[in-house]
Amino acid sequence: MKYNRILLKLSGESLMGSQGYGIDPERLNSYASQIQRVADKGVQIGIVIGGGNIFRGLSGAARGFDRVKGDQMGMMATVINSLALSSAFEAIGQPAKVFTAIPMFPVGYPYSKWEAIKAMKEGSIAIMSCGTGSPYFTTDTGSALRAIEIEADVMLKGTRVDGVYTADPEKDPEAKKFDKITYDEVIARNLKVMDITATALCKENDMPIYVFNMDKEGNLEKMIEGENVGTLVSNN
How distant, in Å, are the alpha carbons of 30, 163, 208, 209, 223 from that of 236? Predict the structure, then answer.
């Protein structure tokens, strides 16, 4: 197996499926079964999921919400998604534990690096919600921080695009995909892999990111087994 411990970042929007809002049970169950197959191979898994399918702090601020309160609402949305994902895992017999960066027991356990690692070593999937627990930070930054904290081998960014391109492939048919790219090149080309804070955090702490299409069934398992299904972003 190529990786022993991973941090998987999922977007909240991906849980919408074709609904346009909320949580699509079919998509949720598909993700749960794909992730369980990887866990069955002995890989320790941490997950951070966004909340954009329910509420996004920045869009709330644009509509007149206080930015701090808007970001806190977005954090609550990530908790809802995390609880839904943990429920889907439990339904198929996969142990999972929800951690929250803001104390809200018994909804979830208070996040601690050591408790998250302990859960993973015991075979549970550690789902880490509320981003960093602070406003003005995205769940991309929360994912980067958690990946570094739990000492993951790689941070996986599951998106609807199969990697990093020279331009947005949904807008530019001439866009070329990278198999590998360095952080320096991502920053120089102003490629939107993640926000700049998350990118800098991963670069400074030598945390590789692998960008791939999570919506394509089986891609996660292929990636873990070493197949090239996306783009590796690293320092070299």
Answer: 34, 17, 10, 12, 19
